[in-house]
């Protein structure tokens, strides 16, 4: 195929083009007026098509990302000063030529991420005076990062070096070289030592990500000098000390991740944040600690710390837009406040492994009713960090400029939630899709509210390892999206509602270690995939996959499913034990043991299984 007309713009992205580029793109051999070419996300292979640049002296923008080009990044034989935009990311390129700064003197955007480049940092890039955006992430560079940038005089505003093998101390030369640095990503390397005080020279920094390194020490108290910082990611290091009060002065900060460090002490003050991650530290104190400044908070992850006290009763006023709340593995106690029912966007709630007691609020079905409205907050784009920088083609094929401040750093936001018997990580659009309640390993009691069945958006429900009693509500069959249901290790009684066979999406199901009786759900529908472990520890259950036949099982009266009627019975029984046993002994027994004793009394008094 050949084209007689001379084109200025050629866009063939996502066209399933496959094979050697020299053959597939041969129809462009006679094109000489191209200014912008986009061949991204195909499967073109072979050598880098430098001939395309050489034949089109006015070519400004070349996008070849998402192909299979390999070998050296070939250069044209002559200087090409028109090219200012080059994206060859997601290929198999392995070598960068030393003369790239001479051949392409006016490049200001270079994305070579996700290739196979290796060795030391290409120092030739320091001599590209117009270069403002450089992405070399996800390669195999191995170099002392401090030495690589010592004496650098580059004007790079956006530098992405994440997911390589850079080592050594924090590269102070990057910030000393240019006070106009806006975006600095050094995550997933082997950088050691402390964060230096001269990090505070980067007054124009809007994004700093040094997560998943080996940094130690504490956060510099001059951190409030980063007055324009919007995204600060320090996750997965060995930082210690307390969270400095100076963080409270960062009025533009919207994303803060300091999880998986050794931080300790109370959280005294934080700025207005949209995404807060402080999990897996040794932080303590009560919650919430930023009542007056969290009105735009969407995500709050405080898992695996030492926070204590009761959950507040004004949460919906403090965090009205909250969509993700993860409080697992702390020491919260008392009741689950009814106020949590008013969090109408909340779709992911983890209160597991605390000391919460009392009953689950029956109004819980009001929670999350408008959760779909904030699904746009999470997307799949790995490049969302600069999605508002407006680099790209304009309507006439030219390359437009860039704005210094990125849009929200949303794409990489990642949450961990226990579902399907494993700890899964959710990010991007799957995070907006995921929803669940995890109240496991507390001291919750009473009936499971029938209103839970109205939460049709639920995909995971875990009430295991509590003191719930009474029947399993048949209304759970209305949870048509449910993929994981764990009610194990409680004191549930009665038969398993046969209506649950309508749950066609279940991948995990367990009611093990309760006091259930009657037939299992057999081999009906999705339940054919569950073995006897789903029903273990219920001696009065029968039917497949259990070996016990229901024809041999005794008839056992079933409790009625009336939450209100249960209150009087529970009160009477509790009053009996309160008289017979002293308070200190009841406290010693704890919730689980108390329920076990209660079951024994009921069996003794009625002569029937409870």
Automatic annotation (TrEMBL):
GO CC, any one term: plasma membrane
What residues form the membrane-spanning segments? Answer: none
As for membrane topology, the entry says: Single-pass membrane protein
Pfam families given in the database record: LRR_1, LRR_8
InterPro entries associated with the record: Leu-rich_rpt, Leu-rich_rpt_typical-subtyp, LRR_dom_sf, RLP_Defense_Trigger
Q: Which domain of life is it from?
A: Eukaryota
The record's keywords, sorted A to Z, are: Cell membrane, Leucine-rich repeat, Membrane, Repeat, Transmembrane, Transmembrane helix
The protein depicted here goes by the name: Uncharacterized protein
């Amino acid at each position: 195929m050949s084209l007689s007309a001379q084109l200025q713009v050629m866009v063939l992205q996502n066209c399933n083009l496959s094979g050697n580029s020299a053959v597939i793109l041969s129809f462009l051999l006679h094109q000489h007026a191209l200014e912008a070419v986009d061949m991204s996300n195909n499967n073109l292979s072979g050598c880098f098509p430098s001939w395309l640049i050489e034949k089109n002296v006015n070519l400004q923008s070349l996008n070849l990302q998402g192909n299979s080009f390999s070998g050296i990044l070939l250069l044209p034989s002559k200087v090409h000063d028109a090219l200012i935009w080059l994206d060859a990311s997601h290929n198999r390129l392995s070598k960068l030529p030393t003369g790239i700064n001479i051949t392409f003197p006016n490049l200001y955007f270079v994305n070579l991420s996700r290739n196979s480049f290796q060795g030391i940092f290409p120092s030739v890039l320091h001599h590209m005076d117009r270069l403002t955006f450089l992405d070399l992430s996800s390669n195999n560079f191995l170099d002392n990062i401090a030495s690589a940038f010592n004496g650098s005089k580059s004007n790079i505003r956006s530098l992405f070096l994440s997911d390589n093998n850079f080592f050594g101390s924090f590269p102070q030369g990057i910030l000393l070289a240019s006070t106009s640095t806006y975006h600095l990503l050094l995550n997933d390397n082997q950088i050691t030592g402390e964060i230096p005080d001269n990090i505070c020279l980067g007054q124009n920094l809007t994004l700093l990500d040094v997560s998943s390194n080996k940094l130690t020490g504490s956060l510099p108290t001059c951190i409030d000098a980063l007055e324009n910082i919007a995204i600060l990611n320090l996750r997965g290091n060995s930082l210690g000390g307390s969270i400095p009060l100076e963080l409270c002065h960062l009025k533009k900060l919207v994303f803060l991740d300091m999880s998986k460090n050794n931080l300790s002490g109370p959280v005294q003050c934080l700025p207005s944040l949209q995404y807060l991650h402080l999990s897996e530290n040794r932080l303590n104190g009560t919650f919430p600690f930023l009542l007056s400044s969290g009105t735009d908070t969407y995500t709050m992850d405080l898992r695996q710390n030492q926070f204590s006290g009761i959950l507040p009763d004004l949460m919906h006023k403090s965090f009205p837009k909250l969509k993700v709340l993860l409080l697992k593995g702390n020491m919260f106690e008392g009741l689950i406040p009814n106020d949590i029912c008013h969090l109408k966007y909340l779709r992911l709630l983890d209160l597991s492994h605390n000391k919460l007691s009392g009953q689950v609020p029956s109004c819980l079905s009001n929670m999350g009713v408008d959760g779909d409205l904030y699904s746009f907050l999470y997307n799949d784009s790995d490049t969302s960090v600069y999605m508002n920088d407006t680099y790209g083609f304009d309507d006439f094929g030219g390359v437009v400029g860039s704005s210094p401040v990125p849009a929200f750093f949303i794409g990489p936001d990642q949450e961990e939630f226990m579902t399907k018997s494993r700890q899964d990580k959710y990010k991007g659009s799957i995070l907006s899709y995921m929803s669940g309640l995890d109240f496991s390993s507390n001291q919750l009691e009473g009936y499971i509210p029938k209103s839970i069945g109205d939460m049709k958006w639920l995909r995971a429900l875990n009430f295991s390892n509590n003191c719930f009693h009474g029947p399993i509500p048949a209304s759970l069959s209305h949870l048509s999206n449910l993929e994981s249901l764990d009610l194990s290790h409680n004191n549930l009684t009665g038969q398993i509602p046969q209506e649950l066979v309508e749950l066609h999406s279940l991948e995990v199901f367990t009611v093990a270690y309760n006091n259930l009786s009657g037939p299992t759900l057999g081999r009906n529908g999705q339940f054919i995939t569950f073995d006897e472990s789903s029903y273990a520890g219920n001696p009065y259950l029968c039917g497949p996959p259990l070996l016990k036949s229901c024809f041999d099982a005794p008839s056992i009266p079933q409790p009625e499913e009336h939450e209100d009627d249960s209150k009087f019975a529970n009160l009477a029984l509790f009053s009996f034990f309160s008289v017979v046993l002293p308070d200190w002994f009841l406290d010693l027994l704890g919730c689980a043991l108390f329920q076990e004793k209660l079951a024994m009394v009921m069996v003794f008094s009625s002569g029937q299984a409870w």
